[in-house]
């Protein structure tokens, strides 16, 4: 008998406790929080650059629709691969597709309150 069995059950019942119990989508969002815009010191998720995230947990397939702060951004050609690499690093991800879109154009209104606070905009 495991004297800590009650603790293991309690941890497993809590969302977000360990990679095994976190949903794949949550782990992907965590990974997106580690990717920062090259010109603004805020992660792409809080900056509002991720327009949609489609996660098929059973297949491990992730589709990301995202934009950049400006169409003329110098990293437009390479940044989707950076995002793809971050998502591929998540346990349970088998396939990633990152689509760079320009419509609707990004605006500051898409930023989270955390991003606004970080940039002194609140």
From TrEMBL:
Which residue ranges does UniProt annotate as crossing the membrane?
Answer: none
PANTHER family in the record: FE-S PROTEIN MATURATION AUXILIARY FACTOR YITW (PTHR42831:SF1)
Name of the protein in question: SUF system Fe-S cluster assembly protein
> What Pfam families is this protein classified in?
FeS_assembly_P (PF01883)
Q: Where is the MIP18 family-like domain?
A: 25-98
